[in-house]
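Lecture notes, unit on protein representations.

Consider one protein chain, 88 amino acids long.
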Amino acid sequence: MAEGPQRRGHVARGLSDGFSQALELVVVPVLFGLLGALADRWLGSGPVLMLTLAFVGFLGSCLAAYYRYDARMREHEAARLQRGRPRP
């Protein structure tokens, strides 16, 4: 395992990625919900658009996190195969 500055950089990147993903999972649905609330107020309807857009924002954030994870795992597997380490 890497020691020193290289390891610290790896840990810092992981913390930064985790924080940005957590923030994305919260902020996107809230912003979509606020947009839906404004549209509901403008149209004079109930909270239908607010709830719908908040759900769409949450679903989009979850899908983005899944595809980001899938891409990273594919990169990780490709790197393992290049190093000649078979999957356990």
